[in-house]
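Per reviewer request, we include the raw input and output of the structure prediction for the construct analysed in the revised manuscript.
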Amino acid sequence: MTPFLTLLSKELLRFWKVAFQTVAAPVLTALLYLVIFAQALEAHVQVYPGIGYTVFLIPGLVMMSVLQNAFANSSSSLIQSKVTGNIVFVLLPPISYVEFFSAYVIASIVRGLSVGIGVLAVTWWFVDLPVKQPLWALSFAILGAGLLGTLGLIAGIWADKFDQLAAFQNFIIMPLTFLSGVFYSMQTLPSFWQTLSHFNPFFYMIDGFRYGFFGVSDVPVLHSLSVVAGALIVLCLFTLRLLSTGYKLRY
């Protein structure tokens, strides 16, 4: 087995062996969000014509779960290795920084999609959810999970201890996620907040993923795709540069 496949297997097994915590728990959290918000707002909010609020909410919750868990996978794995000191056993074998990067990001995508499928399977019991453009939904899920997995690597490289990583997640990832249109449409916001939201890359991930279900979106889907793909490319290049220099890993 090549070093890349060994590292990838290690990262996949790391979260799968505790799937009750890494997969089942996020699914339960998303289900609680759905029950609470659907009960409170179903009769009062309608975003798209003919689409109830519960139906509108589900794709947002699915994508939010995908993004958060993709980030958590790579960031937690790397910081744990750094804090415990076993990162040396990953860096010593003859594995290139591209393979190192790919193994962590692919594992993050797998975990993100696993949680997203779990949330989708559970919430489908509540409503009849349409899927008009499944390839668009899958594309945004993979790109979004890859982007957050890459961002998790950046956070894991930068952080020296768990509270720094928690600060990164609480002050950057969580606000951008909750202000991305998971629970509302941008069209319901005042013009100032609509303009501000367009600077949030998470908004384009959520909106593009939701387009895969309803065939409608707040911005053109190709525009969302270009923003997400562009952000992913920039973050990948930046992360590969960090890994190639050994920043906070080898030195």
